[in-house]
Structures are given as C-alpha cells and as structure tokens.
Design goal:
The protein is an alpha+beta fold. It folds into two domains: 3-160, Up-down Bundle (Four Helix Bundle (Hemerythrin (Met), subunit A)); 164-247, Nonspecific Lipid-transfer Protein, Chain A (2-Layer Sandwich). It has helices at residues 3-25, 43-62, 64-76, 81-88, 94-113, 130-152, 162-171, 173-179, 216-223, 239-247; strands spanning 120-121, 128-129, 189-194, 200-203, 210-215, 235-237. The protein has a four-stranded mixed sheet. Strands 1-2 form a two-stranded antiparallel ribbon. Helix 1 (3-25) runs parallel beside helix 6 (130-152) and helix 2 runs antiparallel to helix 6.
Length: 264
C-alpha cells in the first residue's frame, strides 16, 4: 500500500469512528446496557472492547516489547480473553466508557499517522504491518458498530471503508480454512460484489466455477460473522464457495462460526 492509499485508509477509519461516536453520544444511561446480538454482551461491552484494543494497537506500534509481554500474559489465561476484558470493565460508567473510546481512538489515529504503512508490529497472532492494523481496526469498528446499531434498531450509516473490509474478507480465505482445521482449497473463488456507488468490486478469476456474488455490505456482514450468508442476498456457486462462506472469518482469535437462523 502506498502513502496515498494509507492516508485514505486512515480517513476511512476516522469517518467510521466519527459515525459511531456520534451515535454513542446520543445514548441514554439505560441504552448503554442494551443487549446486542453478541450473546452476553451489551452495548457497553462492544465499546470497551474497541477502546481496549485501540490501546493495545498503539502499544504494539510504540512499545512492541511491552506489548509482547502484555499479550502473552493475556493469552496465557485462555483465548476467551475478549469476554474477560468485557467483564472486567463493566464497573465503568457510560460516560467513562464513551470518553475512553473517543480518546483512545483519537490517540490511535495519531499513532497510525506517524507510522509508515509497511512498518511492522507484533499482535496476538502473527506480526502485521501498520496498514494491516488500520484495516483491522476499521473492520472491528464496523463489525462492533453493527452490533450496536442492531441493538438500537437503527441503520448502519454508509461506510467509505467498505471496500477495505471486503478485501480483508477475501484476503483471509486461507487463514479462515486453517483456523478451522480445514485444508486450504487450491481452486480460485471469484468474488463479485455490488458496490454502494453502483460499481462492481471483483477478486479472483472470472472463469472460475467457484463464485460468490452479491452486495458488498452483505458480504462484509458475513465475513465479520454478523449474518450467516444464507440470510443475505449472497449467491454461492460451487461447494468450495459455499463452504468458505459457512466459516468465513475476517478477524483474528479463536475459530468462530455463526449458524444460520432456524425458521420455526
């Protein structure tokens, strides 16, 4: 990624962050405790999760040795650490949570802006670049924001960073299979997504028999596991394509799988 692309990525991250911050600013005390689609998590848990990992990302970029010790200690107690982090911060008031997220996100954007896109940093999994870290924060903000918008019964505002998240969903194809203990298919999957502006975003070889088609937003809902693909307009052609969508996971951590809703 070149400097212009990196700047655009950070602008997209800021725009998504600002939209979520504007939404959170309007919440009543009671709304912060509303359940979200993530079982056991309220809106406050979604926000403390984002703030915590913003701080972790800034630490990894600025103080990598300290981060490595911090991450190893966190994972040593089990890979359920996101749930433990949520539980540990439920004592905070909504005002404190809001201020933490707002300030941590602003600090992180400053830290990311001070780095080159190819600068390396440690993480809970493999090391990654600053550009990959920014994309991951964009994806996480969009995904956890979706949980919040769903809990409030409001539409997710249009995201200028949707293509970056969709690209991450495609780029994690091999990672997803390995994470779930599956062999990585050698067959190429062609992905064609309808962009919000009416254009078409594509990945892969168009003459592949394995295809995924549909809207970009619904593809992102699937790869962030906010919807099962059978609940969206996505069309999968071929067994490899459909099996991938069953397990698609654009985020790090333990393997996760969202089952389709059961219709009575």
């Amino acid at each position: 990624m070149d400097h212009d692309g990196y700047k655009q990525l950070l602008d997209d991250l800021k725009a998504e962050s600002d939209q979520l911050t504007d939404c959170l600013r309007t919440l009543s005390f009671e709304q912060w405790g509303h359940d979200t689609p993530a079982v056991g998590w309220g809106i406050q848990d979604q926000v403390t999760h984002l703030a915590f990992f913003d701080d972790a990302t800034a630490m990894a970029l600025q103080r990598p040795d300290e981060f490595r010790s911090f991450a190893d200690a966190l994972m040593a107690d089990g890979m359920d650490f996101p749930d433990r982090i949520a539980e540990n911060h439920r004592i905070l008031s909504p005002e404190s949570i809001f201020n933490w997220f707002r300030d941590s996100r602003a600090d992180l954007l400053d830290v990311l802006s001070a780095h080159e896109p190819k600068d390396r940093m440690p993480w809970f999994g493999p090391d990654m670049s600053a550009a990959s870290a920014a994309t991951a924060r964009l994806m996480e903000t969009w995904a956890h924001g979706q949980d919040i918008y769903d809990a409030l019964g409001v539409e997710h505002p249009p995201s200028p960073g949707l293509r970056s998240i969709a690209h991450l969903g495609v780029a994690t194809f091999a990672f997803t299979h390995r994470l779930h203990g599956l062999d990585v298919p050698t067959e190429d999957v062609y992905v064609a997504l309808d962009a919000p502006d009416g254009g078409l975003w594509t990945w892969g070889t168009v003459d592949s028999p394995e295809k995924v088609r549909g809207s970009a937003e619904e593809f992102v809902l699937v790869v962030t596991q906010r919807r099962h693909w059978t609940e969206t307009d996505l069309v999968a052609e071929g067994g490899i394509a459909s099996r991938w969508l069953d397990v698609a996971q654009a985020f790090a951590g333990a393997p996760s799988r969202r089952p389709p809703k059961v219709t009575p």
